[in-house]
Amino acid sequence: MKASDLFVKALESEGVEYVFGIPGEENLDLLESLRKSSIRLVLTRHEQAAGFMAATYGRLTGRTGVCLSTLGPGATNLVTAAAYAQLGAMPMLMITGQKPIKASKQGEFQILDVVDMMHPITKYTRQISSGANIPARVREAFRRAEDERPGAVHLELPEDIAREETDARVIPRSRFETPRASDGSIRAAVEMIETARHPLLLIGAGANRRQTCRALPAFVESTGIPFFSTQMGKGVVDERHPLFLGNAALSGDDFLHRAVESADLIINVGHDVVEKPPFIMGQPENAPPHVEEAARAGEARVIHVNYVTASVDAVYHPHQGVIGDIADSVERLTAAIRPQPHWDFGRFMEVKGHLDAHLLEGADDARFPVYPQRLVADIRAVLPDDGTVTLDNGIYKLWFARNCRARQPNTVLLDNALASMGAGLPSAMAAKMVRPDRPVIAVCGDGGFMMNSQELETAVRLGLDLVVVLLRDDAYGMIRWKQSAMGFDDYGLDYGNPDFVRYAEAYGARGHRVASAEDLRPLLESCLATPGVHLIDVPVDYSENDHILNEDIKARSRAI
User: Fold this and answer.
1) Whole-prediction pTM value?
2) Cα separation of 257 and 157, whole Å?
3) What DSSP character marks residue 336?
4) 146-162, pLDDT tens digit by residue?
5) What's the 3-state SS for 458-509?
6) How far, CA to CA in Å, does 151 sit from each of 15, 55, 276?
7) Which domains are present in the chain?
């Protein structure tokens, strides 16, 4: 058969449902093969958005999301999405085209060494130089993408190779199981936990996989050990649970960090160094200068429960590793641990009381423009337990991480790895395609939204039911917060915006504008109940960010 047909059959064998992207002339044979297949091509308006959608598909399903571009500028537009998937541990395959490699007559026009370009930001990158290589290359790409730790992979398919004839056959998916942790490491961890006086559980990004999400709630119920999470560990255990202490949204000096400092043992499940450290090991005098304000674990011992061993540095050097399939390790720990009468969680619960009270402040603030606390409270109130909110990158991400209680895994989708702007809308679109029966709200700052706002047309064309909450402060608010915290003058961060209501309507979406804080919740409810793509222009007031996040929380948490 033609090599491009074989390539698509290999994708079908891997269970691929969608290919997101923008074809070019170098992809036309592959495009024709896709037309005749069971795979749906989702045409986007920018390759970066296609990559964000593919990565989010991978994040939500555990299966590799696939995106497509042509050579040259099409391929370079995928670089940010590749880094997004690689740092965020999202399985994604990028397919890029290339000029003929055997008899090219076009010199160097649009030709870059894309394989070499992708090497630092992927787990695997190869050019396919023969139709006979396609089955092995595709199978290996999917294996690498989905193997722990998941990430981005890349295959380049030149146009002359795509039209070759080949007798090769698809290599079927292989079955495998992640190795189990040793019995000795389980016994050592159980002894450390049972002899500790103030054990504390941390849920990290690596625990936010489907199997582990089933195991950790049972661990919490069985042991009664309080827990907290990193930003990308949100929702693994329902955050309404009475033992949930909070989210490590801030680097240090939040109420939560008083509990961390009181722990004598931290059970760190799914630690991923791409996230800002939720705590710093060792004494303050031994910590690197750049982590002076981070939360400290003091003399607490640390158990590292993960698929791989921990890289040791001055910030993180655990005392005991439990290395193997995380879900299996958690299940075995749950079965072995016996709650101890000497465990004392009083300090943790005291801290929780202060934090819970603080999170209620501002939830019904009537001032306008809307304050972040009111925004988060209203969005949480209108979404059911399984509703999804996807966040672009901005200062509001900290408010959602800290204030929005996730009730199920991967229902508060944020990026605390690459932390790229522009991903909020494409991620919401992918979430709606994966979970068509669940309501989805994208929360975007005006800066990040405009980086991929053209995908409104894609969402409308796909017939998605989607609500986009556009937070308008006419500036890069996150950087302004940092600028203020460093004592610099306000400079270089203001810009103009279009009329977002008319902008949305120009794409065929429905545009709305909030005129008061009281308008927001009923408007959200109305948009969620009405089919189609809705954009809500919400003026937001970030004027108290510096005071609350940098001064008030720090002072009040240090006082308890």
Assistant:
1) 0.94
2) 50
3) H
4) 998 999 999 999 999 99
5) HHHHCCCCEEEEEEECCECHHHHHHHHHCCCCCCCCECCCCCHHHHHHHCCC
6) 18, 9, 19
7) 3-162 (3.40.50.970), 183-347 (3.40.50.1220), 361-551 (3.40.50.970)
